[in-house]
């Protein structure tokens, strides 16, 4: 396009490659993505993949980490906006309920987890994202007076992960079914398990 700088064109190509990577990971799995197919999906020349990223693995890694970080930051904002941590956890669960375990976002997360078992760098960065998310929740619980904030936050995150995995296998599973259990787990000195204030 006329008037665009090289830097702008480069940013556009990178963005297209990252989006194509996210789409393909969800569609064909991490190991099914090739440089040639990725370039074709992004609509760019084959050589531009390695011009903008040191390797295909680096591109897949960045695409996944950016998506995970953005999704978890958005979900964590629901906790920040809630009057009570238990309300925030329930809001986060209801947000996750939008995903059915077979949608592109769910599959990207699942593929990312699997790839992290074989990619130490991906595992390290994913771990940092998860720890940041868990720390946000643990801090909110601790500030509200929860007696086991760190442990409760760890269980909540494990439930969230399992919820997405199980929804792909059990379409009847819903956030409403498990929300009371999470509310009981995250109830603090100011909130009863049924949501009533003490």
Automatic annotation (TrEMBL):
The keyword DNA-binding applies. The keyword Transcription does not apply. InterPro entries: Homeodomain-like_sf, HTH-type_TetR-like_transc_reg, HTH_TetR, Tet_transcr_reg_TetR-rel_C_sf, TetR_C_31. Residues 11-71 form the HTH tetR-type domain. Residues 34-53 bind DNA. Keywords: DNA-binding. This is TetR/AcrR family transcriptional regulator. It comes from Promicromonospora aerolata.
